[in-house]
Write a structure and sequence with these properties.
Largest sheet: 7 strands, mixed
Order of helices and strands: EEEEEEEEEEE
Shape: globular
Helix content: under 10%
Radius of gyration: 13 Å
Number of helices: 0
Protein backbone atom coordinates (compact mmCIF):
# COMPACT_ATOMS: atom_id res chain seq x y z
CA UNK A 1 0.00 0.00 0.00
CA UNK A 2 1.47 3.33 -1.09
CA UNK A 3 1.76 6.02 1.56
CA UNK A 4 3.08 9.55 1.18
CA UNK A 5 4.42 11.26 4.28
CA UNK A 6 5.05 15.01 4.19
CA UNK A 7 7.12 17.18 6.49
CA UNK A 8 8.44 20.70 6.66
CA UNK A 9 5.40 22.95 6.85
CA UNK A 10 5.06 25.74 9.38
CA UNK A 11 4.75 29.45 10.00
CA UNK A 12 7.11 31.90 8.34
CA UNK A 13 7.20 35.64 7.74
CA UNK A 14 6.78 37.06 4.26
CA UNK A 15 10.06 36.88 2.38
CA UNK A 16 11.18 33.80 4.27
CA UNK A 17 11.82 30.25 3.12
CA UNK A 18 10.55 26.77 3.86
CA UNK A 19 11.41 23.36 2.50
CA UNK A 20 8.79 20.65 2.16
CA UNK A 21 9.74 17.00 1.89
CA UNK A 22 7.72 13.93 0.97
CA UNK A 23 8.66 10.29 1.16
CA UNK A 24 6.69 7.57 -0.59
CA UNK A 25 6.64 4.09 0.86
CA UNK A 26 5.04 0.85 -0.25
CA UNK A 27 5.89 1.05 -3.95
CA UNK A 28 8.60 -0.81 -5.80
CA UNK A 29 7.97 1.28 -8.92
CA UNK A 30 9.32 4.69 -9.83
CA UNK A 31 6.41 7.08 -10.05
CA UNK A 32 5.75 8.65 -13.44
CA UNK A 33 5.57 12.02 -11.71
CA UNK A 34 5.78 13.45 -8.22
CA UNK A 35 4.77 16.91 -7.17
CA UNK A 36 3.00 19.32 -4.90
CA UNK A 37 -0.47 20.81 -4.88
CA UNK A 38 -1.99 23.29 -2.48
CA UNK A 39 -5.40 24.28 -1.28
CA UNK A 40 -6.20 27.57 0.40
CA UNK A 41 -9.41 28.10 2.42
CA UNK A 42 -12.38 28.47 0.13
CA UNK A 43 -10.37 27.65 -2.99
CA UNK A 44 -9.87 24.61 -5.17
CA UNK A 45 -6.75 22.50 -4.95
CA UNK A 46 -4.19 23.72 -7.48
CA UNK A 47 -0.94 22.50 -8.94
CA UNK A 48 2.19 24.07 -7.45
CA UNK A 49 4.93 22.05 -9.13
CA UNK A 50 5.43 18.62 -10.59
CA UNK A 51 8.47 16.73 -11.82
CA UNK A 52 8.47 13.73 -14.13
CA UNK A 53 10.81 10.79 -13.71
CA UNK A 54 12.53 12.06 -16.83
CA UNK A 55 13.32 15.39 -15.20
CA UNK A 56 10.67 17.58 -16.82
CA UNK A 57 9.35 20.18 -14.36
CA UNK A 58 6.15 22.18 -14.47
CA UNK A 59 5.39 25.11 -12.16
CA UNK A 60 2.38 27.26 -11.46
CA UNK A 61 2.95 30.72 -12.87
CA UNK A 62 2.58 32.25 -9.42
CA UNK A 63 5.57 30.35 -8.00
CA UNK A 64 7.99 30.37 -10.93
CA UNK A 65 11.35 31.76 -9.92
CA UNK A 66 10.59 31.35 -6.22
CA UNK A 67 9.96 27.62 -5.76
CA UNK A 68 12.16 24.72 -6.86
CA UNK A 69 11.08 21.10 -7.01
CA UNK A 70 13.49 18.18 -6.81
CA UNK A 71 13.17 14.44 -6.47
CA UNK A 72 15.17 11.30 -5.89
CA UNK A 73 13.76 8.58 -8.11
CA UNK A 74 15.67 5.82 -6.39
CA UNK A 75 14.34 6.82 -2.97
CA UNK A 76 10.88 7.90 -4.18
CA UNK A 77 11.16 11.25 -2.44
CA UNK A 78 10.26 14.73 -3.61
CA UNK A 79 11.06 18.11 -2.10
CA UNK A 80 9.89 21.67 -2.63
CA UNK A 81 12.18 24.56 -1.76
CA UNK A 82 10.06 27.66 -1.29
CA UNK A 83 11.80 31.04 -1.21
CA UNK A 84 10.50 34.61 -1.09
CA UNK A 85 7.26 33.38 0.40
CA UNK A 86 4.19 35.59 0.20
CA UNK A 87 1.01 35.64 2.30
CA UNK A 88 -0.89 34.33 -0.73
CA UNK A 89 1.21 31.15 -0.55
CA UNK A 90 -0.64 30.26 2.65
CA UNK A 91 -2.37 26.92 2.14
CA UNK A 92 -2.31 23.24 2.94
CA UNK A 93 0.30 21.65 0.71
CA UNK A 94 -0.24 18.10 -0.53
CA UNK A 95 2.33 15.73 -1.92
CA UNK A 96 1.23 13.84 -5.03
CA UNK A 97 2.61 10.78 -6.75
CA UNK A 98 1.28 9.59 -10.10
CA UNK A 99 1.73 6.01 -11.25
CA UNK A 100 0.12 4.87 -14.52
CA UNK A 101 -3.52 5.95 -14.01
CA UNK A 102 -3.50 6.30 -10.24
CA UNK A 103 -2.85 9.33 -8.06
CA UNK A 104 -1.65 9.01 -4.49
CA UNK A 105 -1.89 11.85 -1.95
CA UNK A 106 -0.27 12.75 1.31
CA UNK A 107 -2.21 13.98 4.30
CA UNK A 108 -1.18 17.59 3.76
CA UNK A 109 1.03 20.00 5.62
CA UNK A 110 0.08 23.55 6.58
CA UNK A 111 2.15 26.47 5.33
CA UNK A 112 1.28 29.86 6.79
CA UNK A 113 3.01 33.05 5.64
CA UNK A 114 2.46 36.10 7.79
CA UNK A 115 2.60 39.61 6.39
Amino acid sequence: QVQLVESGGGLVEAGGSLRLSCAATGSTFTFNAMGWYRQAPGKQRELVATLSNGGSADYAHSVKGRFTISRDNAENTVALQMNSLKPEDTAVYYCNAHLWHVDFWGQGTQVTVSS
